[in-house]
Amino acid sequence: MIVYKSTHILSKVQAGEVIVSVPRRFLITNKSLMAIYGPHPLSTHQLLALHLVLLCRDRESWWEPYTSLLPSHFSTMPVKYPTELQNHLPHSLTEQVAQQKHKIEEDFVAAAKFFNSKRDSLQSQEPILYEEYEWAWLCVNTRCIHLKTADATAKGGNMALAPMLDFLNHAWDAKIQSDFNIKNQCFEIKTLVPYAKGEQVFISYGPHDNLAILKEYGFVVPDNVFNYIQLDDEVWSLFDDMETPEGAIIKKQILEGAGYSGDYSIKKGDVSFRLLCALRLLALEGAGRPGFNRRVMQWNDVVMGQTERISADNERRVMIMLQSICGQVHEEAAREVEELEEIMNNNSPGMHPFAVRFLHSTWNETKAIASEMLIEIEEKLPLIT
Ligand SMILES: C[S@@+](CC[C@H](N)C(=O)[O-])C[C@H]1O[C@@H](n2cnc3c(N)ncnc32)[C@H](O)[C@@H]1O
């Protein structure tokens, strides 16, 4: 069972009011931990996770009211999915999740080594187990704040745990400001909109699409305006399918040289300019043959914003290529939606129902974006003259 904790307003709040304020002495930072552990070779994330492990082991800890409210598991995070579910992740996420797993493993080794070197001076004598460190690492990942003030001793970013503040949930459209207030020495969250008594307060964890939220925090939000579809794999295979091997190399080098290699995407009703640039170049004929350089100059004019298009024919070919890519993505997403529905209906053991539901939702969103794009292309194609 997921225990979803959230923060609600006790009495009416005006826009501009501070809604959460965590005094410096309650922030768990690299500096505050150095006072306990001394100089150390760890990144702040590695050390915060180790500290959480040790805090949770200490039943007498002053922090028990805080640690007892931390999540009991992270089964909705892709890094914790069973293999059967991981096989349904979009390609763009598979590699990132593998990297995250590798990072946790590396951090565990570094933290365990440091702990062993300090074991005599620390009360906790039992060796650190991977499972408990992974849990603590994910707690830090899903709950830390990033302080803007520079701390030269903090490696890998000036992160901190801010107890209380980390019970605030995310909404992509939350309107807040957060910063450390040097006057009163508190980390504060100010709301930019009013709240009525009893309403849940949200903050924004950043302008993330649902796949990024799923990977870093293990949930998704409805109607996320930051959703998009990454299409690099599809674009590169189109280059290989439509060009001779030499032509593909020439065109990929042109994209590289112009700074337009990769990061191709579409979102609701919008094709990224980078993707259009790549497809416009792919639609140019005769790579490496006479006259090609002149056509590349025309392409360059469009890239630089000096003209809007190369030709009607080029635009039409771009639309047809986009149609083929979106068709492919739509087909894959529809298949994944069906397969995940089957998994949901079968109540597969070892799979958290919310994990399946969230992943299903991301594929449904991909399907919807691709489907809308296909309708738009259908309408646009006959109008290109
Ligand atoms: C900083 S904590 C927020 C407090 C959290 N709800 C708790 O129970 O401790 C971040 C975690 O809260 C959950 N969360 C935050 N915003 C959410 C939302 N809009 N919908 C569902 N879960 C959310 C996710 O599990 C995420 O990893």
Q: What number of domains?
A: 2
Number of strands: 11
Q: What ligand species are in this complex?
A: S-adenosylmethionine
| Oligomeric grouping of the chains | single chain
Q: CATH-wise, what's the superfamily of the largest domain?
A: set domain protein methyltransferase, domain 1
Mean pLDDT, all residues: 94
Number of helical elements: 13
What is the succession of H and E elements?
EEHHHHHHEEEEEEHEHHEEHHHH
Q: What is the end-to-end distance?
A: 58 Å
Low-confidence regions: none
Radius of gyration: 25 Å
Main beta sheet, described? 3 strands, antiparallel
Portion of residues in beta strands equals 5-15%
- What's the level 1 CATH class of the largest domain? Alpha Beta
Level of helix content?
A: 40-55%
The dominant shape is elongated
**Spatial order of the strands forming the largest sheet:** 1-7-6
Structural class: mainly alpha
CATH architecture of the largest domain: Alpha-Beta Complex
The CATH topology of the largest domain is what? set domain protein methyltransferase, domain 1
InterPro entries: SET_dom, SET_dom_sf, SETD3_SETD6_MTase, SETD4_SET
Organism: Phycomyces blakesleeanus
Pfam families: SET
Protein name: SET domain-containing protein
